[in-house]
Amino acid sequence: MRSTVKTSFLRLAVITPVVAAMGLPVSSFASHDDAPFPRYGSRRLESGLKVIVHEDHELPVVRLEVMIRAGSVDDPVGKEGMAAFTAATLTEGTDTRSAIQIAETIDFVGGSLGADAGYDATYLS
């Protein structure tokens, strides 16, 4: 099962860009110099967590996204769905605050909270 899913994923990862590129004129493939990469800072915390920060003062907005390098591909045999279950529990509250209290606090300032498990990573935003 795992090799079938992995093979299907790899095929999709290879075929999608090829099909997308077939409909584009050669001139649409601009040089990388035309699109500069945004400036960012990077720091590793004592816990080993790597933090990458990109500041953009155009809007008064803060966005935080956490990527944990563990996804459904890392689910133990016989415990498929563990990554998705873990991601779902990340927004379900703590010992001192319920999920509703957290959601209301974040919503009050115009924010949102979400978590999702992908193939090779889990995301919290």
UniProtKB/TrEMBL annotation:
Keywords: Signal. It comes from the Bacteria. This is Peptidase M16 N-terminal domain-containing protein. Residues 1-20 form the signal peptide. It comes from Candidatus Glassbacteria bacterium RBG_16_58_8. Residues 51-122 form the Peptidase M16 N-terminal domain. One of its GO terms (molecular function) is metal ion binding.
